[in-house]
Amino acid sequence: MEGPRRGSAAIVGVAESDLGQVADGMSVVDLMAQGTKRALDDCGLSLKDVDGLFSATTQNRLSVLALAEYLGINPPFLGSTIVGGSSFEYHVAHAMGAIALGLCKVAVIAYGSTQRSVGRKQASVREVNPYETPFKPFMPSSAYALAASRHMHEFGTTREQLAAVAVAAREWALLNPAAWEKKPLTIEGVLSSRMVSYPFTVRDCCLVTDGGGAIVVTSAERAGSLKKAPAYVLGSGQSVTHASISSMPDLTVTGALAAGKAAYAMAKLGPADVDAVELYDAFTINTILFLEDLGFCKKGEGGAFVTGGRIAPKGSLAVNTNGGGLSYCHPGMYGLFLLIEAVRQLRGECGARQVNDCEVALAHGNGGVLSSQATVILGTEATL
Amino acid sequence: MPDNQDAPLKTYIDHLERGELAYQFSPDMGKAVFYPRVLCPFTGSDRLEWRISKGLGTVHATTVVHPGEGKPFNVSLIDCDEGFRLMSRVEDIAPEQVKIGQRVRFRVHRPGDEEAPYPVFVPVEGV
């Protein structure tokens, strides 16, 4: 089976909607529309160019219909794959395929959430799993905590090493004017915060913010004539290993292993070629697991790898350069923001947090409870 | 109307009502299947046998949940000796004293009021 050709599509426009705590009464579709307008302005396209529309949110059951209606467009190609926070990495792969088949030419991928404003309970339908719910795990935190407990048991990973992930994310966030968190954080500050689900304190857990945004994907041919330098899609890969944490085959190995492998193979690149690494850090253990599974260090060595400022600003590997879900924003399905930051790093738009000579950026989305994993590798024109 | 199949969950809970921890077994794969379903996830076949666990297992992963209100409590993943894993909790000891590798034994928990019984575990003494 031959998939879309390496570099045959590109992300040409990116934008966040309002973030943090949005104005009273803003809906998720308001935020999607705001992101769409800004992302189209970013690349110089307009709504009349859009013939592919993708969206995902937990707060609107048929969101892509609501968004098409709101925008006043009737795009022939729609996508609403919803697999949690990695949905948008899936959408990029699906948009690339649709563009390659001629099913659409310009695709908008949009997201919105008002979970901070309306409360987490209002933002997501409570689902009952008769084999898990009776035990009252605090989801999703407890699922990731169970995975962390296993990593600590097998590899000697420590709470201090987990905390180092949160501290590095905070240092990056302090360089990002759009980040929610504005104050420095220390290892001790992480460890002494309110315990949520051992080994996680609230500082090991992602933020609960509002937010949204959009990205624009088009063919490489069209991308070349637009306003800004395209971020070419060099590779993509996906893997689903389970839905509920009790069915995860191995709590210390995620589907990022298979997703990354497929993405690297398509891109004809490896971890050593990646300049900026954007990983879905819903919890501190995520960054460690994904650094291992995506080949930046060996399995079991992620805890040691993240210490000593290695993934912080001025460290040897630039990881979660916007401050991540831990310190920049986390409206519930964070995957779109990984792509936005990766594109901005490739364009050199990141100011104080800009990674030098950034030619290849990797965005890795995670959905459910380490369930759906999707990698997108992007590159500048020089990497084609 | 044709005879519709019982829900796998109903069979599972019926066993718990009798104080039994039931699981399914795939004869084609020679492996345990959990949670109960209408087909085998290894083969796609609907040939699955119900079996009763001896109720002994090992803690595979564990966390202590700190709720906004109320006391911290344990949530664990338990590997039963027959080769299946389930979520549960370990009772009779402090939640933070539950350790990975610890041997545990099943007991049925009956919450009462309309709520279905569910399996919990307690430490195996002297093992």
Description:
With 384 residues, chain A is of the alpha/beta class. Chain A has helices at residues 28-43, 63-71, 87-100, 115-118, 120-123, 141-155, 159-173, 187-191, 220-223, 256-267, 284-293, 302-305, 324-327, 335-347; strands spanning 9-16, 52-56, 77-79, 106-113, 195-197, 200-201, 211-219, 231-240, 276-279, 318-319, 360-367, 372-379. The longest helix of chain B has 10 residues, at 8-17. With 127 residues, chain B is mostly beta strands. Chain B has one helix at residues 8-17, and strands at 22-26, 31-33, 49-52, 56-65, 73-80, 84-88, 103-109, 118-123. Chain B is built from one helix and eight strands, in the order αββββββββ. Helix content of chain B is 8%, strand content 38%. The chains are: A alpha/beta (384), B mainly beta (127). Chains A and B meet through helix 6 and strand 5 of A and strand 4, strand 5 and strand 6 of B.
Which SSEs are present, and which pair or pack?
The complex is a heterodimer of chains A (384) and B (127).
Chain A: E1 9-16, H1 28-43, E2 52-56, H2 63-71, E3 77-79, H3 87-100, E4 106-113, H4 115-118, H5 120-123, H6 141-155, H7 159-173, H8 187-191, E5 195-197, E6 200-201, E7 211-219, H9 220-223, E8 231-240, H10 256-267, E9 276-279, H11 284-293, H12 302-305, E10 318-319, H13 324-327, H14 335-347, E11 360-367, E12 372-379
Chain B: H1 8-17, E1 22-26, E2 31-33, E3 49-52, E4 56-65, E5 73-80, E6 84-88, E7 103-109, E8 118-123
Antiparallel strand pairs in B: 1-2, 1-3, 4-5, 4-7, 5-6, 7-8
